[in-house]
Amino acid sequence: MAIDEGVKPVPVEDEILAVIRQRWSPMSFSDQPVSDADLAKVFTAAGWAASCYNEQPWRFLVGRQGDATYEKIMDALVEFNQVWAKTAPVLILSASKMVFSTNGYPNPLGLHDTGGASANMSLQAAALGLQTRGISDVDQARARRNFAIPDEFAICAAWALGYPGGPDALPMIYREMEKAARTRKPLREFVFTAWERAAEI
Ligand SMILES: Cc1cc2nc3c(=O)[nH]c(=O)nc-3n(C[C@H](O)[C@H](O)[C@H](O)COP(=O)(O)O)c2cc1C
Q1: In 3D, which of 9, 11, 15 has the Cα closest to residue 126?
Q2: Is residue 130 part of a domain?
Q3: Is residue 188 part of a domain?
Q4: pLDDT digits over 146-196, tens only?
Q5: Do the beta carbons of residue 5 and residue 17 sit within 8 Å?
Q6: Is 5 inside a domain boundary?
Q7: What whole-number distance in Å separates Cα of residue 160 and Cα of residue 183?
Q8: What's the domain range around 136?
Q9: Is this model's pTM higher than 0.70 or not?
Q10: Does residue 150 belong to any structural domain of this protein?
């Protein structure tokens, strides 16, 4: 499938990969269903992320609207996010193993690597015409209880996934957020040669 420019595009002067241009985070999703084949591609892409000692610490719980997994994820979200997230046909909860499977030692980079896998997931989704939106403020205790997640796993984030819907489907206060322009820090604010000394690139 050809990659179209995202609805909320990256500035044209940023010459980056088409799929990165295409990704953005909608709050409103259409009711168009997501195929099992596309979901499998999205998680296959997540699984091909790099990780410390190839531990692959990420785990993803995936629910579809109407099933018990979806309800258990929704139950752990704050109301602000529930309002828009319920438009998504798929909800995902990410968790990360925080000890190495080989020796039980702590893996301080587990969250880092699960973030990398999640980025792969979002980019593969965008390449398929789908989009994702991350969701913080997950009630950790509730999510752990709802899924009986073992203690050596940290609960990371929830994700909404589906085809973008359009702002008019949202309650008024969310519509302006959905239409707002996307902004980013300039490179000088996060690429340094010494602490807070901008790299001359
Ligand atoms: C881990 C994570 C958690 C997020 N949590 C929320 C959230 O709780 N509620 C929300 O509306 N958006 C949330 N977002 C979406 C961000 O606000 C969004 O990614 C950011 O504004 C940049 O916009 P863009 O993804 O379209 O580039 C989250 C994104 C990530 C990656």
Answers
A1: 9
A2: yes
A3: no
A4: 999 999 999 999 999 999 999 998 999 999 999 999 999 999 999 999 999
A5: no
A6: no
A7: 21
A8: 25-167
A9: yes
A10: yes
Atom of ligand 1 at shortest distance to CA of 118? 31
Query: What are 7-47's pLDDT values in tens digits?
Result: 677 877 788 999 999 999 999 999 999 999 999 999 999 99
Side chain identity, residue 88: A
Q: Which two tokens stand for residue 139?
A: 């009630």
Q: Which amino acid, 57?
A: P
The span from the CA of 65 to the CA of 74, in Å, is 10
The 8-class DSSP code of residue 180 comes to S
- Atom number in ligand 1 closest to CA 26: 26
Residue entry with tokens 């000394």: 197
What is the token pair recorded at 74? 């929704």
Residue 154 belongs to domain with CATH number = 3.40.109.10
Residue 8 gets which letter from DSSP?
S
| Alpha carbon nearest to ligand 1 atom 23, residue | 25
Q: If you measure from the C-alpha of residue 82 to the centroid of ligand 1, how many angstroms do you get, rounded to a whole number?
A: 14
Distances (CA, A) of 81 to 58, 72, 84: 23, 14, 6
Q: Extract the tokens encoding 2.
A: 């050809």
Q: Among 10, 136, 177, which is best to mutate for testing ligand 1, by the most ligand atoms less than 8 A from CB?
A: 136
* Ligand 1 geometric centre to CA of 24 (Å): 9
Q: Which residue, by CA, sits nearest to atom 15 of ligand 1?
A: 134
Query: What is d(CA 151, CA 174) in angstroms, rounded to the nearest whole number?
Result: 35
